[in-house]
Amino acid sequence: MNNLENFSDGEPSNTETVEAVQPITLVGHFIQGGLVSKTSRTQAVYHPATGAISKEVALADSDLVNHVVHIAQQAFPAWRDTPVIKRARVMFKFKQLLEDNAEKLCELIGQEHGKICHDAQGELQRGIENVEYACGAPEFLKGEYSKNVGPDIDSWSEFQPLGVVAGITPFNFPAMVPLWMFPMAIVCGNCFILKPSEKTPSAALYLAELLKQAGLPDGVFNVINGDKQAVDALLHHPNIQAISFVGSTPIAEYIYRTATSAGKRCQALGGAKNHAIIMPDADIDNVVNSLLGAAFGSSGERCMALSVAVAIGDEIADLVIEKLTHEMQQLKFGHYTDQQNDFGPLISQAHKDKVQAFIQSAERQGAKIVVDGRDAKPVGYETGFFVGPTLIDQVSSDMTSYQQEIFGPVLQVIRVETMHEAMQLINDHEYGNGTCIYTRDGEAARYFSHHIQVGMVGINVPLPVPVAYHSFGGWKRSLFGDLYAYGPDGVRFYTRRKTITQRWPSTQIREAKQFSMPTLN
Ligand code: NAD
Fold it and tell me: Is-above-0.90 flag for pTM?
C-alpha cells in the first residue's frame, strides 16, 4: 500500500513500503487484451469537486513502453491483413457498446474530470461520431484506379497502414479526444498505443475493454498510463511510426520537434485563444445565450471555448455586458451528478491557482472585473477546485490574461471601433484554433471567414467544432504538422500511399529496349 501523504498534483511518488489508511484504487494499463497494474511509480488522481484523492494511477517506465510496442508489433501483421470489412465490423459493434455503456463512461469522466453528466454525454456523442465515420473504411480505403495509363498498363494507388502508432491525449476530453484518434488508426489496419492524461486515466481503460468486447484481437489496442517518462519512451522508440498529440502548445511543440527529428510522422494540436466578434447588427439575446455556454461550459476547459468577446463599438459592448452580468448570476456550478449544474470544477488546485492568478493580473494591469468568480464556492463543495464564472471588461492586447490561454470560466471583453480592427487583433494572436462572428450581414461574414487567420470559423456558431466527416485543426501555434485530426485528414495521417503500375503484356508482344524516360509520345 502507498503513503497517500506523498502525493501532490503532478508529482509522482514511489510506491514502496508505507501503509495507507484505506485501500485506494490503482488505475493501471491495458496491454494484450487485459488490465495490468504493474508499476514502480504512481501519481494521485483527484476528485475535483471535493479536492480529495480518489485513486492513484500507475506511471509506465520505458521498459513497459518497450514491452507494449513489442506486443503491438506482434499483433500488426494479422490485423493489417484482416479484410477491411471485418475491421469495420469491430467498429460497428464498438459503437453499439459505447452507446449501451454511455452512463458508466460518463460516470468515469465525471469522477476524474468533474464535468457535469450532460456535458460528458455530449463529449461521448461527439466521440461516437468518429467511430461511425470509421465504419466507412471499406469505402474510404478503396484507393484510386486508372486503367490503361499506357499500352496494357493499369495504375492504382492504395493506402496501407503505417504499423504501430501512438496517441497522447489531454485531460479535458478523456473519451472524445482518444476517439478522434484510435478508431480511425485501427480501422485503417494499424496497431495503436494510447497514453491518456494521467489526470483522467480511467475512461481510456474502459474504452479498451469495450473494444475487446467488440471483437478486437488482443494487442491491436493498448493503453499505457504515464507521464513524461512514458511519452519520451514513445517519442524515441524506433518502431513507433506516427504520433498524434493533443494538449498544450509548449508540449505540442516539443512533441512535434522530437517526433519528427526521430523520423516519425506527427500531428500535434495545441492551445487556443478563441475570439468572438460581436457586430453592431447582431441578435444580442442570441449572442448572450451562446456566449454563456461557449465561455463557461465545461468550466472553460475546452480548446474551443470562446474566451474573448470583441465588441464593435461601446454601445454593443455595454449592452452585452449588462445582459451577461444578469445571466451570469443564474449560472449553477457544482458536482457532476447534479444535472441542474451548468459546469463543474477545474481539474486541479494548481490549475485553479493559475486561473485566479490570471484574473488578478488582468485587474493589476488595468482591466475591470465585472463579475468575479475567484472566491465562489458551491455549498457542500468548499474544498473543490472551483472558480465561478468571471467577466472582465476593458481588456487590452498587451495584458497577460489576453496573450495567454487561461483555460477557465473567464470571459474577457475587448472594445474596438471596426470589424477590421477586431480581425487584426485575432490575426495577430499567436493562436489560431477557433473563432466566430455574430452578425446579420452576409457580406461582413463572408469577408471575415475568407480573411481570418484561424483554422475553424463560426458564423453565428460559437463552437465551430467540425463534425466527424470533416477534420479538426487550428492554424499558427494551435497546430504543429500538416494534417488535421480525424475525418479525411485522419485517413491520410494513418495510412501511407503506395502507387502500383502494372502491365500484363500479351505473349506476342516483347518490349524494345528503351533508355529514355518512358512517355506516351
Ligand atoms: P498537457 O499539454 O499538459 O498534457 C497533454 C498530454 O501531454 C498528457 O498526456 C500529458 O501526460 C503529456 N505531457 C504533459 N507534460 C509533458 C511533458 N513535459 N513531456 C511529455 N509529455 C507531457 O495538456 P492538458 O493540461 O492535459 O490539456 C489542456 C491543454 O490541451 C490546453 O492547452 C488545451 O487548449 C489543449 N487542448 C487542445 C485541443 C485541440 O484540439 N487543439 C483539444 C483539447 C485540449
Answer: yes
